[in-house]
Give the backbone structure.
Amino acid sequence: MLKSLLVKDYMTADPLAFKPEMDVLTAVHQLLEHRLTGAPVVDGEGKLVGFFSEKDGLKVALNASYYEQPGGPVGQHMTVQVKTLSDTSSMADAVELFVAHHYHCYPVVADGRLVGQLSRTDALKALEKLW
């Protein structure tokens, strides 16, 4: 039954997203403000180019603390190899990814462009509807 549910029906549409040139401190502030563990990074056309997570922010903070290196733009600190979901993926496929990997959320793409984000909480909401 979980195979019949689609990611696009449970994802957060229009998620918080960063631009590569955004300052890291601004991005960290927005993650904290929105209580998110990370957010996609998109270019001017909405194409996914990376993901900036709390962990990336912590690395920047550590470097600033030990090596007195400035933050810089998100594009210098983001993860470039990003696992994604298609908006037409089944929730069963999404749940399998959550179980197999440590990620808290996945960007959702359609035709290479960001259309949403699916979190573990979103996946649990889908499961709850089945029960």
